[in-house]
Design a protein that fits this description.
Layout lengths: L2 E9 L3 H12 L4 E6 L4 E7 L5 E7 L2 H4 L3 H9 L5 E9 L2 H8 L3 E7 L5 E7 L12 E6 L19 E8 L2 H7 L7 E4 L4 E9 L2 E5 L1
Parallel strand pairs: 1-4, 5-8, 9-10
Antiparallel strand pairs: 1-5, 2-3, 3-4, 6-7, 7-8, 9-11, 11-12
Length: 209
Amino acid sequence: MTLRIDHVVYGVHDLEAAAARFREAFGLVTTPGGTHPRWGTANRIASLGGARYLELLAIADPAVAATTALGRAIAERVAVGDRWFALCLADDAIDDTAARLGLAVMPGSRVRPDGREVAWRGAGIDDERRTPDLPFFITWDGPADVHPGAVAPEHPSGAKDVAWVEIAGDPELFTIWTDGASLPVRSVAGDAGITGVALVTPAGDLVVR
């Protein structure tokens, strides 16, 4: 089984305000992603190329979001301000992973601004048993060029990849959850959740907190 970082989700109250802050503070360009009617959410994407990206995720329809585990988790996570929400791992054997962890594999999709559909199968994103320090899993359907991280814009920071992800939580539980996969994840003390993401740039690691 091959697990690798696909994207990291940053929960926000306001997509446009967050996009402006990411550009000003971190030199990251984001583009509109789309809406997720099933969850009542919407996103913007900071593509890093190489099938990796950062996702800004906000509640777009509070009424729908309140009825879903994901929507409620986003609302709770950003109650004290914008912050990292979850790590997503690309999984070449998502059905096996789901069976091992007792997760359901669910289809998902959204329509890009250019009208093309982005489709995937995911496991764990809206499972209430998943704590903020544990990743969810994804496998993408369709052509590779519709992957949100396929083509990176010219970021002012020159960001091109994820160097590492810093997570507070139980490292032993993380290892069990990911079946001992080798991942660029650093464990720190603190309340469960992602505390920082470092991006590869020509000037060295750029840490986004």
